[in-house]
Write a structure and sequence with these properties.
The protein is mostly beta strands. The chain has one domain. The protein has 1 helix and 5 strands, in the order αβββββ. The longest helix has 4 residues. This is Anaphase-promoting complex subunit 4 WD40 domain-containing protein. InterPro entries: WD40_repeat_dom_sf (IPR036322).
C-alpha cells in the first residue's frame, strides 16, 4: 500500500476496506485507533483534516496504513 500524503481527507485515509475501531482523541489534537488487524494507528488532525498517519507495528513506526 502506498504512503498517505499530508493533508489527506479522512475518506482518503480510511477507505471501507481499512475500517478501524476504538477511536480516541488525545489532548494534543491527535487521534489513536486500533485497526482491523490489531495495529495501533496514530493520527494528527488539524481543522478536520488528517495531517499524518503513523502505524506502530513491531515497534517500528511507518507512514502508511500497512507495514511493508
Amino acid at each position: 500500500m502506498s504512503s498517505l500524503p499530508i493533508g489527506s481527507a479522512a475518506a482518503d485515509i480510511l477507505p471501507p476496506s481499512e475500517t478501524i475501531s476504538g477511536l480516541a482523541f488525545l489532548n494534543d489534537n491527535s487521534l489513536l485507533a486500533s485497526s482491523w488487524d490489531g495495529s495501533i494507528l496514530g493520527y494528527s488532525v488539524q481543522n478536520g483534516v488528517f495531517q499524518r498517519v503513523i502505524q506502530f507495528k513491531n515497534d517500528c513506526p511507518v507512514t502508511s496504513i500497512s507495514c511493508s
